[in-house]
């Protein structure tokens, strides 16, 4: 049986499930943001050394029936903020309950540690610097990178490389204020920005800016690569970060053929990271060199699948079924 861990709004999960239905394959889906509504219980007894996890949704005492876990998404419920409390207490209470929820989630994940996983929650905590180090070991080029916290270091780095960008050290986040949503994008740092920062600031990741021909989003699955080229450089809105989507004038996206040597290096990198699945971001610069940027274990694959006719949802379903038949 296949156990799918996701949330109730991920369309990619829905499409993979459609293929599992068509093949008649047994699966169970658990949504992280609905996890607490499943009436689950966890019991430990001095009479039994095994941990008992019971749920109306699924009997985890019989977890041996599960052949593979696909970790797609998770996410906490939206009900942690107590509107009946003062704002300061509401925030602190919500933060505390989120911490408790994460612990309960980890107990759940650990109960399935004996099962084969396609992506794992632990992969989400990999830092970008470690991944860049592994990319170098795999023989891939990376942009010159610095994490600094002083204006002097920032100025020196910019003098060496001319143009530089900054991005989040970890995962990007979204911030909400009323009906407005704010996101963190990769941005270029210009002299005016540097003049406005304090002498000391929170440690930030900066990299040399590399003029590109186009960006590459590459979905990796079980040793195979599925690349897509994104022509984002001609649009001022998406030139630095294609995720700053232009809905009026979308970037052109096409299937792409990677050189065999780059494919080999990607496979080596994913082996070093012990990852069988993930979305990889790279660029091809104006000189024709390829640069690795980052890998997201739970990145979007629909944006590559549909434009390129890769049918990745079908391939993912078949990959999960292949594991259950081993």
Report on the architecture of this protein.
- With 326 residues, this protein is of the alpha+beta class.
- 30% of the residues lie in helices and 30% in strands.
- It contains eight helices and 17 strands.
- It has helices at 11-23, 87-110, 128-137, 151-161, 191-196, 260-272, 302-308, 312-324, and strands at residues 2-6, 27-31, 41-45, 48-54, 68-71, 116-118, 145-150, 164-167, 174-177, 180-183, 187-189, 200-208, 212-221, 224-231, 252-255, 277-285, 290-296.
- The strands form five sheets. Strands 15-14-13-16-17 form a five-stranded antiparallel sheet.
- α1 packs across α8 (312-324).
Write down the Rg: 22 Å
Question: What is the global morphology?
Answer: globular
Count the helices. How many? 8
Measured as a percent range, the helix fraction is 25-40%
Chain-averaged pLDDT: 86
Number of strands: 17
Structural class, by secondary structure, is: alpha+beta
Span between termini = 12 Å
Strand content: 25-35%
Considering the chains and any ligands shown, give keywords for the structure.
single chain; 326 residues; alpha+beta; 5-stranded antiparallel β-sheet; 4-stranded parallel β-sheet; 8 helices; 17 strands; 30% strand; globular
Task: Describe the secondary structure blueprint for this structure.
Blueprint: E1 2-6, H1 11-23, E2 27-31, E3 41-45, E4 48-54, E5 68-71, H2 87-110, E6 116-118, H3 128-137, E7 145-150, H4 151-161, E8 164-167, E9 174-177, E10 180-183, E11 187-189, H5 191-196, E12 200-208, E13 212-221, E14 224-231, E15 252-255, H6 260-272, E16 277-285, E17 290-296, H7 302-308, H8 312-324
Parallel strand pairs: 1-2, 1-5, 5-6
Antiparallel strand pairs: 3-4, 7-12, 8-11, 8-12, 9-10, 13-14, 13-16, 14-15, 16-17
